[in-house]
């Protein structure tokens, strides 16, 4: 998964570069390539990256529950001492 995300990221960057280069000669084709690469970046790359980074984590660890608030308060008390 890590390599797929890396390859996809590099290909989106290359497509953006090609799009900006082609935009100098043919504006319609350049805009099309830029738009498609941005769509792939946001609709494919971002969800894959978010899934890859959060797949083994518990969302409960990042929610403000009474337990987590107590842990933060205890940590602050220890830090002041």
Summarize the helices and strands and which ones pair or pack:
Elements: H1 2-25, H2 27-54, H3 66-80
Describe the structure.
There is one protein chain. With 81 residues, the protein is mainly alpha-helical. It has one domain (2-80). 83% of the residues lie in helices and 0% in strands. The chain has three helices and no strands.
Provide a compact summary of the structure.
The chain is mainly α. Helix content is about 85%, strand content about 0%.
Q: Tell me the radius of gyration.
A: 22 Å
Helix content: over 70%
Strand content: under 5%
* Uncertain residue ranges: none
**N-to-C CA distance:** 45 Å
Counting DSSP H or I runs of 4 or more residues, the number of helices is: 3
In total, the number of strands is 0
Return the domain count: 1
Shape assignment: elongated
Instruction: Describe the main β-sheet briefly.
Output: none
Mean pLDDT: 91
Q: In sequence order, what are the helices and strands, one letter per element?
A: HHH
Give the class from helix and strand content and strand pairing.
mainly alpha
């Amino acid at each position: 998964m890590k390599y797929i995300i890396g390859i996809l990221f590099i290909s989106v960057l290359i497509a953006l570069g090609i799009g900006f280069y082609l935009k100098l000669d043919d504006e319609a084709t350049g805009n099309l390539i830029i738009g498609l690469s941005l769509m792939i970046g946001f609709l494919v790359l971002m969800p894959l990256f978010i899934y890859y980074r959060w797949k083994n984590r518990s969302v409960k660890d990042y929610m403000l529950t009474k337990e987590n608030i107590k842990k933060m308060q205890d940590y602050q008390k220890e830090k002041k001492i």
